[in-house]
Amino acid sequence: MLILTTGGTIDKIYFDAKSEYEIGEPTITHIFQEVGATLPHEIISLMRKDSLEINDEDRALIRKNCVECQASQILITHGTDTMCETAAALQDIQGKTIVLTGALAPARFKITDAVFNVGTAIGAAQSKPPGVYIAMNGQIFEAGTVRKNREAGKFERI
Amino acid sequence: MLILTTGGTIDKIYFDAKSEYEIGEPTITHIFQEVGATLPHEIISLMRKDSLEINDEDRALIRKNCVECQASQILITHGTDTMCETAAALQDIQGKTIVLTGALAPARFKITDAVFNVGTAIGAAQSKPPGVYIAMNGQIFEAGTVRKNREAGKFERI
Amino acid sequence: MLILTTGGTIDKIYFDAKSEYEIGEPTITHIFQEVGATLPHEIISLMRKDSLEINDEDRALIRKNCVECQASQILITHGTDTMCETAAALQDIQGKTIVLTGALAPARFKITDAVFNVGTAIGAAQSKPPGVYIAMNGQIFEAGTVRKNREAGKFERI
Amino acid sequence: MLILTTGGTIDKIYFDAKSEYEIGEPTITHIFQEVGATLPHEIISLMRKDSLEINDEDRALIRKNCVECQASQILITHGTDTMCETAAALQDIQGKTIVLTGALAPARFKITDAVFNVGTAIGAAQSKPPGVYIAMNGQIFEAGTVRKNREAGKFERI
Fold it and tell me: Which residues form the L-asparaginase N-terminal domain (chains A, B, C, D) (predicted)?
């Protein structure tokens, strides 16, 4: 499995001196160690961006990595605000199962959906037929059928 | 999705006075709340047993619940020591995707694989074709192809 | 014991929509419940400010509350950046043991000094003779003898 | 400060294969690292016992270490069931501030009083006049004036 990390809340850390969040090292490496995951995988950190800052050039880079890699199962960690847009930009890639996930609360928080969401995405990426999916709130949505409901703080079917 | 809980390390709690673990309420209810899971589901607590104590009668009860329910996606939380035996006992059920999972460290621990494993199982149960699977260590194994390696503390393909 | 809360990193929370921290409810109430503290106490939330924003008027309010309360043991939670200045502003209050503490990482983080620091301050407030103290990094400093070393991320004797 | 560890719930770990707790490495080393404690200290692990198994010989060893060390501030981590008995056995030591603490839930649990209690004890050990004290439930009790209320799960004044 290929894992592409792009930043987002899941990887956010906190610097006291500046009293603001910044995006740190991919947390997924730490998650895999802590839970004893034995799944063979490669992690590539493509960028460290809040998803509101991810632009067309970034999406082209993500797409290029998905298309050119040898893996047929791909997990992408991504900020939640534009996760659906990035999923749409990958939607016509053939022959690969691509699952995007992220978190509404940073993995470094005591209460976070990060570990659960990565688990859900890992499970789906090994199980779904080729296509592009979003794994959030314990559900597997097909790209193009889902949006983030900001007020409710959850993803839902369109 | 139907969720059957049977006990095991994932649900273990600790009573100070007796200095030993006992199996408590299904932790999956708490996990779902904490991560904001919106997946429609029903939870049935069938038993609260260490998996070394699960016998043929218990397995018959688990099987009966899988066969007679209306759900086509079933998640079973189970102790790890005999998870593979229970999976084998369900293997010939037709038309349902059944995923077993559990944990090597209790969900109440700071460091635990419980939340991740439940996530993986939830992802697989919504994605795999009908069959019986075990979701542990970030992998989805087909029933009959997997064993617990006690010394290494992980599940592996036979 | 009287507990005055003023904000600071210890009480910081995170709002996804705005991608920035804000200061929430005093976390000390939650800490006391979680650890089973039985110490009789009253909590007054005076303000919710980053300590860089605490001004002379705020310090006058904190001082007024210390002087006019009936308690002889007072704990103040406070941002770390100007904790030493606030301690200095209280230094000549007679007949009361006043201990300031806070945290370098929010109490809502998995890894935080918040719970430990509140414990240290609670221990000192019940034990020290009248005076003004800062409890940080497991040490009890007298007001006027301590500064925050921002680069090292710790408090140290001047 | 001298820190003597004797075992107890605070240091309990869990071995899956045996489905029972055992007492592990002193957790206080880990706590100090995680919270950034800068207090100069030495840790001696005297024994790893459930406090119901601590006998007169063990108490003589603890006492000998308290009497013969050069430190004037001593922290002892101890199981809660006989913490009061050990405190009583040290009560006539002169010129030293000795504080005992422990935990009702293991430090490895998500919800635990371990970190808070160690903080309280550290604060008291640096602040109290010579004597023997127990720091539990956010309170500092003098040896001989306190008992564990097993049913209520807390320490209380006799």
Answer: 2-150
